[in-house]
Amino acid sequence: MLNVRNLTRSYGSFIAVDDVSFSIKKGEIIGLLGHNGAGKTTIMKIVSGYLEADGGEVSLDGISLGKNAKLLQQHLGYLPENLPVYPEMTVAEYLDYAADLKGLTANKKIAEIKRVIKATDLSAKLLAPIDTLSRGYKQRVGVAQAILGNPKLLILDEPTNGLDPEQTQHMRKLIKDIAQTATVILSTHIMQEVNALCDRVLILKSGQLVLDEKLDALQHSRHLVAETDCTD
Ligand code: ATP
């Protein structure tokens, strides 16, 4: 479904993503692992259309994503590491704004906002300004905006980072639920999270893909997991 071919991206002379290729099948949950600075966020931003690659190609169901804003808007949901929200907006105002950005028509908008509020269990917080929410609730708002329009592919950058154990469990269950209907790529440092959620693991090291393996085959590559410093 998603095909990433020979992706490269540098910041000045520093190569952040170095000739990375992988494919993802429909319905998979993929864990993108690697230590700080390995290139995870850069790859996620490129696939989501927030950053241009220097080289390579990303395609969804055979169609190049590149600058295809319409395709990205329709089929891709993205939870960035730090959600760029207006802190004084209420949750309801923000989701309304996010639905407009997704290009949802007036007819669809209300039903979609109701659906994502239910899915993320946010109904008690609709009138709360976003900056009054805990990190866990802010992340739920982030997921709610990402799943507006029911995207085929959901990209989550460290979705449980900074969450307490209860919110972490809630987020993991939410991701499992969403994965019933969408393909998911999530980045994380936590091996336990990968074990709980993922079908397949990609490990990045200094911008290069050093492992692409199904979770049940991962015990043969323990050394790589340990080397990339992504265990608990
Ligand atoms: P983390 O787990 O810390 O989020 P990451 O694996 O997501 O790390 P990236 O954020 O993709 O890694 O960063 C890859 C490398 O590129 C890092 O060395 C980072 O410092 C560098 N980098 C990222 N963004 C920029 C930028 N805008 N300008 C210069 N260097 C950057």
Automatic annotation (TrEMBL):
<keyword id="KW-0067">ATP-binding</keyword>
<keyword id="KW-0813">Transport</keyword>
<comment type="similarity">
    <text>Belongs to the ABC transporter superfamily.</text>
</comment>
<keyword id="KW-0547">Nucleotide-binding</keyword>
<protein>
    <submittedName>
        <fullName>ABC transporter ATP-binding protein</fullName>
    </submittedName>
</protein>
<dbReference type="GO" id="GO:0016887">
    <property type="term" value="F:ATP hydrolysis activity"/>
</dbReference>
<feature type="domain" description="ABC transporter">
    <location>
        <begin position="2"/>
        <end position="231"/>
    </location>
</feature>
<dbReference type="GO" id="GO:0005524">
    <property type="term" value="F:ATP binding"/>
</dbReference>
